[in-house]
Design brief:
Elements (H helix, E strand, L loop, with lengths): L8 H31 L4 H28 L2 H20 L4 H30 L4 H26 L2 H20 L22 H10 L2 H13 L6 H18 L3 H4 L2 H20 L4 H15 L2 H12 L5 H30 L1 H23 L3 H10 L5
Length: 389
């Protein structure tokens, strides 16, 4: 039975700090491209490089943030991430020109990796491993809440400098909050050579990776695709993001209450239906409903998979596991961005949505290795146990 004791103030402090960290990231992002292009005289290609370097740094940093959280503590990883985000805001404000923008994005990528890994691993342990799905749902709510609210605040602030200053302040406020949260995790010594990607995590990584193939399709082509069918794209995207936020906050604990395979495959089914409807170019009302269904389905595969993994591995390896799974997501999102762009350019926007739906088949196949126990091995182990034991 899963304990239903109330989550304490320390847990909610972690969620609040996560929200503030990602709020700052979201606040500065919308004005970054125009600032580089118009204020600093960069080219469109330079804008692309400044935006894109974040993803590569974040991907590489996953393999640093996980071991840092396991060997030095979740709190150290979390604080490192927040301080790096604050330094990114300072770099944006420094009179360094384009170099400051590149430096800021590098610090931002490293900070995001450490922030998320530290927050996720720590929140799971504070809530209890049997409530890992719920804990990860709340962490994701903090992330999506910050990323969703940040751009609106950035637009309201009016200038990139104000947005960068806000990013610095929110990260520092979150840093102070985390300082006062007591950490009970005690790092254990790790002997032997560390494996960058343990084999046991590969199926889980592939599962969450294929699930996220749809993300660049939605962010890049949803508005453009639906412009020909009533211009419901912005509203549909808002429905998609809102359903993710609400579902992860209120229903994040479902993988703890029922078998996570049910929420995993149920989420895939909802996503496939939503993508299929969007691919055909529906009416505005149907498009908004389909996007909301897609967001609802997307709310469950990550927490279902991560909860399953974290419950099966030792506490001292959970930070690294979160980092590796997140790295798979970064890799698949990055690669699928280029693939989806090529497919849309050659075959049209609908084909990109079909591609995302087909990726869910691969996610379903990968999920079998994550959620289906190897019954033959279990029976063999039972037979080999002496009767006198």
């Amino acid at each position: 039975m899963v304990s239903r004791r109330p989550l304490g103030a320390g847990f909610w402090a972690l969620i609040g700090a996560t929200f503030l960290g990602f709020l700052g990231i979201g606040t500065a992002l919308p004005a970054l491209g125009p600032h580089v292009r118009h204020d600093l005289g960069g080219s469109d290609q330079t804008v692309g490089f400044v935006i894109g370097i974040f993803s590569f740094v974040a991907l590489a940093s996953r393999f640093v943030s996980g071991p840092l959280a396991d060997r030095k503590g979740r709190k150290i990883a979390f604080l490192t991430g927040l301080m790096s985000c604050a330094l990114a805001g300072m770099a944006y404000l420094a009179p360094l020109g384009l170099a400051g923008m590149f430096l800021g994005r590098i610090l931002q990528g490293f900070g995001e990796a450490c922030l998320y890994t530290g927050a996720a691993a720590w929140a799971v342990e504070v809530a209890g491993i049997q409530r890992s799905g719920q804990a990860l749902g709340y962490v994701s709510s903090g992330i999506w809440g910050g990323i969703s609210t940040g751009p609106a605040i950035g637009q309201w602030l009016g200038t990139f400098e104000r947005a960068a200053f806000t990013q610095m302040i929110t990260a520092l406020v979150a840093f102070v909050i985390v300082l006062f949260v007591v950490e009970h995790y005690k790092p254990m010594p790790h002997e032997g050579r560390r494996r960058w990607i343990p084999k046991v995590l590969v199926p889980s990584g592939l599962a969450v990776g294929f699930v996220n193939v749809h993300y660049p399709v939605i962010t890049g082509f949803l508005v453009l695709h639906l412009a020909r069918f009533g211009s419901s794209g912005p509203t549909a995207f808002s429905a998609y993001a809102l359903l993710i936020l609400l579902s992860r906050f209120f229903l994040g604990g479902l993988p703890d209450r029922i078998h996570p395979s049910i929420t995993y495959y149920g989420g895939l089914a909802a996503m496939a239906l939503g993508l299929g409807v969007l691919a055909i170019g529906p009416s505005p009302a149907l498009a908004i409903s389909a996007a909301g269904l897609l967001g609802f389905g997307f709310s469950f595969p990550w927490s279902s998979t991560a909860a399953r993994v974290l419950q099966k591995i030792p506490s001292g390896e959970r930070g690294s596991a979160v980092g590796v799974l997140s790295a798979f997501v970064d890799l698949f999102v990055g690669v699928s961005s280029f693939v989806a762009g090529a497919v849309a350019n050659r075959f049209g926007y609908s084909a990109a949505f079909v591609l995302a739906a087909l990726a869910l088949i691969a996610a379903a196949v990968a999920g079998r290795s994550v959620f289906t126990p190897n019954e033959s091995k279990r029976r063999k182990a039972e037979v080999e146990v002496p009767a006198s034991v």
